[in-house]
Hints:
- Helices cover 38% and strands 15% of the residues.
- By secondary structure, it is α/β, with parallel strands linked by helices.
- The chain has two domains: 4-145 and 305-348, Rossmann fold, CATH 3.40.50.450; 150-301 and 362-403, Rossmann fold.
- It has a seven-stranded mixed beta sheet, sandwiched between helices. Strands 7-8-6-9 form a four-stranded parallel beta sheet, with helices on both faces.
- α1 packs parallel to α11.
Amino acid sequence: MQSSIVILAGGGPxxxxxxxxxxxxxxxxxxxxxxxxxxxxxKSLFSAQPEMIDFTFEFADDIQKxxxxxxxxxxxxxxxxxxxxxxxxxxxxxLLVTIGGDDTASTANRISKFLAENSVKIQNIHVPKTIDNDxxxxxxxxxxGYYSAKDEGxxxxxxxxxxxxxxxxxxxxxxxxxxxxxxxxxxxxxCHYPMIIIPEMFNKVPVTFDRITRLIISSMVKxxxxxxxxxxxxxxxxxxxxxxxxxxESSGVNFTYDDHGHPxxxxxxxxxxxxxLLQYKLKEIKLNIKSRPVELxxxxxxxxxxxxxxxxxxxxxxxxxxLYDKGITAAMVTSNPAGESAPxxxxxxxxxxxxxxxxxxxxxxxxxxxxxxNGLQYLTEEDYEAAKKYLSNPEYYDFKKILNW
Length: 405
């Protein structure tokens, strides 16, 4: 039977998925392999009737520059009891190529261990994908899709900033990001937003809506003192992942709940929550400032990849073949700025529960320190006297005191 490889994509879309799929498919087809694409991610892999397609070179070539994903994606996370060797033996699979973020990588790691324990000899190579940029890759290596999503986010965010200037209002923008604030930080810093709020900032105090609201008001009043009555604050949705359910429910939003009793955050606009609570606080302290919510989420995920990701995703695809030929398995493929491929073994980046540890924004890094110390506008002790015209207790809105920095 002809040797085959199988490609699946997990999680949500990110620009460049098709470039990776295309590159991997073409390089293996040229080497005589059958290339199987799985729709529906892991759910299809262990299904009695997997939804699959056979790649041709022409089809792979056609999708190379497209946004979205030619393979239907899924966040399905199989239990260990669902694992089976059937698909791998039936189709003579020599390599499982998984494309996704931390959950997809963690599941790929579990599957690799299962197959090894059941004497099925196949290789698994994971391609790190997420617009969140939160996989623990080597320094200087982004996750693919991040730069394309950020580029589209900046395009929208600059238009929002111009609307703020034109209308004299404030906008509260929410940007995607599960546990890390890379996307919000990158967009906000590129657009010179006066306030950026990411989960990493709360390294000395708990994340609360009150602190988020006070940080935005700190920037609002500082801008007034600078003679600028408008502005934009960007807040990462990742702050929700560090809040208690009680804190989230205190927002006053009517949530739906999942099977575990947790609020389903994907069903509501995070920007609406931030802005609603901000407006309540502004009325309470009698500051007449209008603000409007804007969500940056699904608009970023399926755009066409930029030149950076087209090249980068191609290198990652070639890297899959290079690692495969070297016999490497249970690893993520990486490509450094020079284009050199190398494996990052999943066992080296997982925690005690087998989950891949996220890469957070380095607050002590030079980039973050430059932006937070010089790029943002917020109240400090030097502003207290002038700020008393607008706030009865300016110290309560001091940026560094809110965060205990």
